[in-house]
């Protein structure tokens, strides 16, 4: 179709790396970096898709690409940690500070899911990275949001080899060059608390509040300041104070858990959550649902309708606000699985804010699945780049190739494209300023204001859009524009200003900085790192390992274990995310908490075996709601929250009771088990005991994505228990504690069996000497 209808893609542009992270700088150039130096490294053996060793490099090579001259240069230095060591800022979070420097939090070390505690800034003026103080713990996949006062909120990310989510957010203060700790949402959000998901979809609203809208379905508010006094909200913990307050918004998206998808604030206070996730349909593919929330209305509610959905299902894609207010959607995988490179979606779509409908655009040449990125450029085009590195893809799917999309508005005939001739480089809030335009551009319909983008993993952490009020003089060559009124609706920093004519054709954007008071004082750079052993020794003394004031999730899990004083039910859960249950935990935790029989979930899962631990509800007398969980019911309730993003493999229970023979000793027909827990309320629950076989195994191997092999100890447990029971005089049986996989025998009337993985003979039970 014609370019004025579906737009046009450029010929390929070869970048210097897979642009997993991409940012439009205040000088109009594009900073980007990937995972490793050589993304085309071939596998070293036949069992690998790529060179696995190089996936975990501990350094970064970043580049700056010029959209005008199309040339690329490396950054003048590489990011370093506080001890002068190189760091890899792959899988970090990033957003702009008020002075235009890019703040970067976290990154990658050792393996996927293991975040670093480093932070740094990048200066577009000097093309250099500057080391900043360490965070409280590591962060792999954190989100970063610039706040109205110029500080930055950093949330989530995993650490400790991917075993744990960093649930304790922090606030970075560029002026003080220092961190402050934020209240743990688990201490404030009702209904069992909140564990943050990776790269949470969090936005700043016009009220100065942050709103978290995904990947989990529940919407949550975060307030850094008291709305009445304007002072920081502080809660005393030990001898210090933590900042902010989390509250449940009592709103929930209908499409439930949706990860690896974008969310967009397409106008101040108006949000859309687009596609993503898995399941919710017969094929297990991602959704095309789009859900909308207008927090400026009197009674905000999530809404959706088939007419307002995307045309195509997709996940691992991007959504970019264009100068005319439309939203350009491109890339992604449309097939089942984490990132289905064999079933990419190359057809782009354009969303119309007036009708809330999508229209197909021209298809791009390359697949843009996991780690694909898209970024608005000053000339109103969009660069589409990245994809690959890793997520199960080989070197051929690691795309150095980028393409530029020219939207349909660039091909509308008639008058010349609007052109801004003069403009101020800096403005102040609520003040008026003027720009001059080319004499032939008299029909200006709107002036739009878009913050410079910074993109990774479907998340544009800095994107925002608003329309500015303006008047045009009688000659038509001068526009008097009113700057945004405050820093809640428009945080301090650099923006693209566009003049859009009545045809919807935008000018080339001009980059303007907005601030409350001139240019801020230079942020302290700190001493440059000295590459010597003495510098590392000094760093060890002057930069002690940070420590959270509040307990980490591991510490909370241990406190819960002690307080419960009973064995948990072990739930085997597999995430579609290939990095294991540890980092990909937030959605599973939320879903397990919602199972009707569950009282509380341990806040940390077992990452090596992909197991979660839950405690069943009890009545006032301590009697459990269910002695033997209905596996089918639990699976159904889990899937209602997370769709196909997680799979429940099974359940293991640990129960006390009496093991007896089902028939005469000589027949050895098997064992039955009568549950005798302390609070059964007199109810007798009898189950069949069975051998633990490979099909019983719930422990999961993350790397092979298959159950672990049953050990000899596990396989022999049932036989050893049988021998113990047959040696007991009479038919009184043996008092034991049994742990094993719970098997449902057909319908509920068919009863249950436990495949015995281990057992313990209880004290006082009679055991013969022979």
Layout of secondary structure:
Elements: H1 3-6, E1 8-9, E2 13-14, E3 21-24, E4 30-33, E5 62-65, E6 72-74, E7 93-96, E8 102-105, E9 108-109, E10 111-115, E11 119-123, E12 128-132, E13 143-146, E14 152-155, E15 158-159, E16 164-165, E17 170-173, E18 178-181, E19 201-204, E20 210-214, E21 218-223, E22 234-237, E23 240-243, E24 245-252, E25 263-267, E26 270-276, E27 287-294, E28 318-321, E29 327-330, E30 347-352, E31 357-363, E32 372-376, E33 382-386, E34 401-406, E35 420-422, E36 426-428, E37 432-437, E38 444-451, E39 454-456, E40 459-460, E41 465-468, E42 470-472, E43 478-482, E44 493-501, E45 510-515, H2 533-542, H3 553-564, E46 569-575, H4 586-593, E47 598-601, E48 611-616, H5 631-642, E49 646-661, E50 671-675, E51 685-691, E52 700-701, E53 706-707, H6 712-726, E54 734-744, E55 752-761
Parallel strand pairs: 36-45, 51-55
Antiparallel strand pairs: 1-34, 2-34, 3-4, 3-39, 4-5, 5-6, 7-8, 8-11, 9-10, 11-12, 13-14, 14-17, 15-16, 17-18, 19-20, 20-21, 21-24, 22-23, 25-26, 26-27, 28-29, 29-30, 30-31, 32-33, 33-34, 35-37, 37-43, 38-41, 38-44, 39-40, 42-43, 44-45, 46-48, 46-49, 47-48, 49-50, 49-54, 50-51, 52-53, 54-55
InterPro entries: Gal_Oxase/kelch_b-propeller, Gal_Oxidase_central_sf, Glyoxal_oxidase_N, GO-like_E_set, Ig-like_fold, Ig_E-set, Kelch_1
Protein name: Copper radical oxidase
Pfam families: Glyoxal_oxid_N, GO-like_E_set
């Amino acid at each position: 179709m014609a370019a004025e209808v579906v737009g046009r893609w450029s010929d390929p542009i070869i970048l210097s790396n897979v642009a997993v992270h991409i940012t439009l700088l205040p000088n109009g150039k594009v900073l980007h970096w990937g995972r490793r130096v050589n993304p085309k490294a071939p596998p070293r053996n036949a069992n690998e898709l790529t060179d696995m060793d190089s996936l975990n490099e501990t350094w970064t090579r970043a580049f700056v690409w010029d959209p005008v001259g199309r040339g690329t240069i490396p950054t003048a230095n590489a990011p370093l940690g506080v001890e002068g060591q190189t760091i890899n800022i792959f899988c970090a979070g990033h957003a702009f500070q008020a002075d235009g420097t890019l703040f970067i939090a976290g990154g990658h070390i050792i393996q996927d899911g293991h975040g670093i505690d480093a932070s740094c800034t990048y200066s577009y003026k000097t093309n250099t990275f500057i080391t900043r103080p360490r965070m409280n713990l590591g962060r792999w996949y954190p989100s970063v949001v610039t706040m109205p006062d110029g500080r930055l909120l950093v949330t989530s990310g995993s650490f400790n080899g991917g075993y744990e989510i960093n649930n304790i957010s922090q606030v970075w203060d560029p002026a003080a060059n220092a961190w402050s700790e934020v209240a743990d949402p688990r201490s404030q959000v009702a209904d069992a608390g909140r564990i943050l998901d990776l790269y949470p979809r969090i936005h700043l609203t016009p009220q100065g509040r942050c709103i978290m809208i995904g990947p989990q379905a529940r919407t949550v508010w975060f307030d850094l300041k008291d709305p009445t006094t304007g002072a920081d909200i502080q809660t005393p913990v030990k001898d210090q104070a933590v900042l902010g307050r989390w509250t449940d918004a009592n709103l929930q998206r209908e499409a439930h858990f949706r990860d690896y998808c974008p969310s967009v604030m397409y106008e101040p206070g108006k949000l859309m959550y687009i596609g993503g996730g898995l399941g919710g349909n017969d094929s297990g593919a991602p959704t095309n649902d789009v859900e909308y929330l207008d927090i400026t209305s009197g009674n905000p509610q999530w809404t959706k309708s088939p007419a307002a959905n995307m045309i195509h299902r997709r996940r691992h894609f991007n959504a970019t606000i264009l100068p005319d207010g439309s939203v350009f959607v491109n890339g992604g995988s449309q097939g089942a699985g984490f990132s289905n490179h064999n079933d990419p979606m190359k057809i782009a779509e354009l969303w119309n804010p007036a009708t809330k409908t999508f229209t197909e655009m021209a298809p791009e040449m390359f697949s843009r699945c996991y780690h694909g990125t898209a970024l608005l450029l000053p000339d109103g085009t969009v660069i589409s780049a990245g994809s690959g590195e890793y997520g199960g893809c080989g070197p051929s799917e690691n795309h150095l190739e980028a393409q530029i999309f020219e939207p349909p508005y660039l091909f509308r005939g008639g008058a010349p494209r609007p052109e801004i001739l003069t403009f101020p480089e800096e403005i102040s809030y609520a003040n008026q300023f003027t720009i001059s335009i080319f004499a032939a551009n008299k029909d200006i319909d709107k002036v739009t204001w878009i913050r410079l983008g910074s993109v990774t993993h479907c998340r544009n952490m800095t994107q925002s859009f608003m329309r500015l009020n303006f008047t045009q003089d009688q000659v038509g060559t001068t526009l008097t524009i009113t700057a945004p009124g405050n820093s809640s609706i428009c945080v301090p920093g650099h923006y693209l200003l566009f003049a859009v004519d009545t045809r919807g054709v935008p000018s080339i954007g001009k980059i303007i900085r907005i601030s409350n008071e001139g240019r801020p004082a230079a942020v302290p750079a700190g001493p440059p790192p000295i590459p010597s052993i003495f510098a590392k020794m000094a760093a060890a003394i002057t930069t002690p390992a940070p420590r959270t004031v509040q307990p980490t999730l591991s510490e909370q899990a241990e406190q819960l274990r002690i307080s419960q004083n009973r064995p948990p039910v072990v739930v085997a859960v597999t995430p579609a995310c290939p990095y294991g249950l540890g980092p990909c935990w937030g959605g599973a935790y939320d879903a397990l908490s919602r199972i009707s029989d569950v009282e509380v979930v341990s806040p940390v899962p077992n990452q090596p075996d992909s197991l979660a631990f839950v405690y069943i509800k009890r009545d006032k007398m301590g009697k459990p709601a269910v002695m033997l969980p209905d596996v089918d019911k639990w699976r159904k309730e889990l899937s209602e929250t997370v769709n196909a993003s997680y799979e429940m493999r099974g359940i293991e229970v640990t129960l006390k009771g009496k093991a007896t023979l089902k028939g005469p000793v000589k027949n050895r027909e098997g064992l039955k088990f009568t549950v005798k827990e302390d609070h059964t309320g007199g109810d007798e629950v009898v189950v069949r005991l069975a051998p633990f076989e490979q099909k019983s195994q719930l422990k999961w191997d993350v790397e092979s994505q298959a159950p672990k092999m049953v050990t000899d100890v596990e396989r022999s447990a049932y036989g050893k228990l049988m021998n113990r029971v047959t040696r007991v005089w009479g038919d009184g049986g043996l008092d034991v504690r049994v742990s094993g996989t719970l098997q449902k025998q057909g319908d509920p009337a068919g009863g249950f069996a436990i495949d015995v993985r281990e057992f313990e003979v209880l004290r006082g039970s009679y055991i013969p000497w022979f």
